[in-house]
Amino acid sequence: MNSPNLIILYVKNPAESAAFYRSLLGRDPVAEAPNFVAFALDGGFTLGLWRLSKVAPQPSATGSRAEIAFMVPGENGVSTLYQDWQKRQLPIAQELTDLDFGPTFVVLDPDGHRLRVCEPDK
């Protein structure tokens, strides 16, 4: 069976994005090259950061139409992470709020990719 295991974000500067994700994830990349950086994630996934100017074939559109979600378990887990990321002065696109699926907020990475934090499904 084929299962997805790699998320690739197109970035302007892989080194800058790697520094952001190194701090956010609390881990070092497993691969680093001038045009591509990869982080091993829990659950068998890898996050790749690929220099946009080197992507082949080039994407036909720009803009963010997707999110990477961090599901944070535990009572007040989302609000605790929100406070931490506020202290780090990450750009907040959506303040901490309650939606149909519970507490959530969204921050942006250096390229404007949306990073949503929410609780796991119950």
Automatic annotation (TrEMBL):
Domain (VOC) ranges: 3-120
Which is a Pfam family this sequence falls into?
Glyoxalase
**What is the protein named?**
Drug:proton antiporter
